[in-house]
Every structure is written in C-alpha cells, then in structure tokens.
Amino acid sequence: MSWFKREKAGPEIPEKPPEGGRRVRTEGLWLKCEGCRQIIWKKDLEANWNVCPKCGRHMRMDAFQRLKLLLDGPWEEFDADLHSSNPLDFVDSKPYSERLEAMRQSTNLFDALISAGGTLAGRPVLICAMDIRFIGGSMGCVVGEKITRAIERAIAQKAPLIIVSASGGARMQEGAVSLMQLAKISAALMRLDECRVPYISVLTDPTTGGVTASFAMLGDLNIAEPGALIGFAGPRVIEQTIRQKLPEGFQRAEFLEKHGMLDAVVPRSELKTYIAQALRFLAG
Amino acid sequence: MPEEPEQSVESSPPTASNDAWRRVQLARHAKRPHSLDYINRVFTGFHEIHGDRGFGDDPAIVAGFAFLDDNPIMVVGEQKGRDTKQKLYRNFGMPKPEGYRKALRLMQLASKFGRPVVTFLDTPGAYPGIDADERGQAEAIARNLREMARLACPVICVCIGEGGSGGALALGVGNCVLMLENAVYSVISPESCAAIIWRDSAKAELAAAALKLTAEDLQSLGLIDDIIPEPPGGAHENPDLAADLLATRLRRALRELSPLNSAELVQQRYTKFRRMGNFFL
Lengths: 284, 281
Prior knowledge:
By secondary structure, chain A is α/β, with parallel strands linked by helices. Chain A has helices spanning 42-47, 63-70, 96-107, 141-157, 175-194, 209-212, 235-242, 253-258, 268-283; strands spanning 30-32, 39-41, 76-78, 113-120, 123-130, 161-167, 199-207, 221-224, 264-265. In chain B, strand 2 (61-68) and strand 3 (71-78) form a beta hairpin.
C-alpha cells in the first residue's frame, strides 16, 4: 500500500460527490485553482470574493460582484439600457448585432460596463465596473459614453469616481469609433482633473490595449490587484514581435509596480478599505 | 467583352473590399512621402528638437519648430524610414514611450507660448516590445490623450499614411483632424483583425473593408473633419504637389482657428471629441 501513499500531505480530500464513478464529477461544486492546482469548494471561493482560500490567487469577478465588494449596499445604476447601434455593420463569424444580443442573453448586460452610484464606507461615490465576460470587456461607443457620462456626473456632484477596469481593449467590431472613445474619455478626465474631483483607477485581470492606454492609467491613483495582467500590447503580440519567450511575471501587477507604473498593488480583501482611506486623504 | 474571361476580370468594378485594401496598400506604399518629406516641403526653417528629458530620443517621432509663411509652428510627426537601415533606425515608424513624451513636451512648449501645433500621424502602431511596455507605453499614450485635450493653442492633426490605433491617436487630439485621401485610420491593422476573426492574416483584404478605415469612412462616421486630396495615383506619384495640397489645407485650418482664444480652443476641441461615436440607442 505504501506505493500509493502520498509523500506530502495533500489538500484535504473532500468526500466523494454522490454519483462519483471513476471520473469525479464535480458539477460545478468544486473548482481547481489555476495557481496552486488545489481543489476548492466553489462556495468557499465565492465567500472569499473569488480569491483562492489556499494560495490567494485573485480570480476574475464580474461587474455585479465588483459593485457588491466595493459599495456599502444597494446602488443606483445609470444608463443601463444604452446599447450599440452597430455603426460599421460589422460581420465576422456572425453579425455584430447578433453577437451583442447573445452576450446580452448570457450576461444580462447591454454592454461591458456597469455605471453606478452608491456609497463606499459612507461616502457617495460613482463607480464604473467593467465586465470581462461581455466580448472580452471590450470598449466600444457604449462603454465610452457611459464612462464619459459618469465623469460628467462626478463633476456635477463633486463625487469621487472609481473605475474598475477589466478589458482586452478597444472593441474591434466598432473600428475607429471605438478608438475615438479613448480620446473622448481622456478629454473628459482632463475636465475632472481641472475640477479637482478625485479619480481612482483600479486595474484588474486583465487590463490591456486601449483601456490601459487611456483612462486606466489616468487615475489620481492607479492601483491594481495582485497578479493582474496589465499592459499595452498583449503578451502574444509582443512574443510575435520580438520572437522570443517573455520573462516570467512580465506585465503582471507586481512587475508594473516594480517599474514605477503603478502606485500600489492592493489585495482584494483590502481594496475597499484602501479606497476609503485614499478618498479620505484626497477628498477629506 | 463579358465573353472574354480575362477581360471580364479586369473590367470588374472595384468592390468596397478591394478599394479599402487598395488604400491600405497606398498608405503603406514604399515611395509614399513620410513626415519629413512634407515638413521639408511645407515649412521653412525646421529645427529638430530632441529627447524627452527623461530617458532618450526616439527617432520614430521627429519634432521641432518651423515656419509656415513666417508663422511659427511646432511640428510633430511620426517618421518611417525608406531603406532598410533607415527603417531600423526609425523602428518602422513605431514610437516608444520616450517618443510620445518628447511629443508632449514640445506640444506643451508650443501651448505655453501660444504657437500652433501641427502633427503628422503615420505609424503601424505604438511599438509592442518589452522595453516599451516596461517604460509605460500605455501611460505615455494615455497622458498624451488627456494633455492634448488641455493644450491652449490651435492643434491640427493630419493622418498622412497609416493611422495605427492608439499609436497614432496619441498625436491625434486636435481642433482640426484631417486625413489624406489615401491614408487609413483604424483601431487594429487589417492583418491582426483577420487573424482574430478568421485565424488567417491572409484575409486582411476582407478585414480592411469590414473595419471601415478609409478617409471617406471616417468622415462619414464623423470622426475626422476633412479629406485632403492627393495627386492622381497617390501622393508618391507627385510629392511636391501632395505637399502643396497639404499646405493649402493647413493654411485654411490655421486661418479658421485663429479667431479663437485659448479657452475657446480647448472648448472647441472638447466638444468635437465629446460628440464622437454617438452610435448608441
């Protein structure tokens, strides 16, 4: 029997699920952490805001969870039903308008961002949270407009703005229209800056392309979650350009912090407290 | 005519697809005039100013002061090379963060002294390399976008060749944004777009049409102000004439912006970009 004995104490082995045949059928109750390869009970993971309870790996979360994490209670959502009119009539493997509809069905969102107002540690704030599930969290004219309106609202209400990024960048299916959203949002942030209203940018896994190259890097504070992939060009694009493997940890939050591109790397468990403290400093 | 097969192929009218692709090829043409070709023909007394005062001087962006009919202008342009040696020196026209930071430094200098800025956009994209990312490529572009919106002087941007996504837009926030007739401006290259959609970069021709990246497309989407005509066959067929046409349009733009004071210039630029992309319901 010692042949099969574990040398190291492994993870707690859960009881076999009821219909466990040869293949363990987890049916979504159990997940394997990509970081430590250990099996986690899904409810444990959810209770821990999608951070692996065993190794602390920060997994992605959707925009709803993000708002729940940061806001004290219920929030007011703005521009919820804004949706794209498909300016380019773009067709790839399927028409863009069908893709949008399918995404709407699966995510319950009209586009890749929720814009909301609520309180954070008692302070009224405006939050935009991107949702990576919606066409890779890509930014088209709807995301651009919702963020710009949120900035205008922040100026009008003198309320701090928090944008939580999770995006592959500008949305290809809206072509140059997407591209110009970078300029539009950045110009609005110029006004926010002139009005001295605080803006905290939270970069989460992944934040790349046009989102990094615009509002995500323009916060009064730019903070990121541990291990988040953050960059301008995606890792595959860089590998193709330089034709060699990228160094370990390249474009991760810790790497950016080391190179002076991020103000802090903040674990998810401390994120709300950190923002509350920062706003206390910035806005009194 | 339709009976003869090879004739019918030749006389088939240009489809939207191959017209867009033809523009992409013209925009990248080996002999197409680059920023310095226009700077030397349109302006007098150009003196290049180097460096970002932080890290280095990026040869993929040329910048300096010059005169257009005795009017002082700050000129900033993305610069490609012509032969292999020059191409390598100019990094194929792909700027690094220090290039964008140099550009911003000089645009802010112009703003301080109320001198107009003219930028030339011509890049396949911002350089996607380890060193560029390490030094904050995204931050440099983002900062340019925000700070160009704040410049207190007239800003005129001309896309003269390839408007490669954020790498071009980082010099593209102006009071007046123009495109040469055969220039293209896009969020992604047709090759990369085709690689994503069809997993085949050879389908770039189709992607070029789908992306709506020609000057006419951008004008009809309300993303640029005007199109500058090129000599028949493209700017490379007659660079002197192309430069003349460009200079004429630049003079008009400067004349139109001259009555605005600095606050009005910032406001006009803001309003223009604020309206871009009203394609939501």
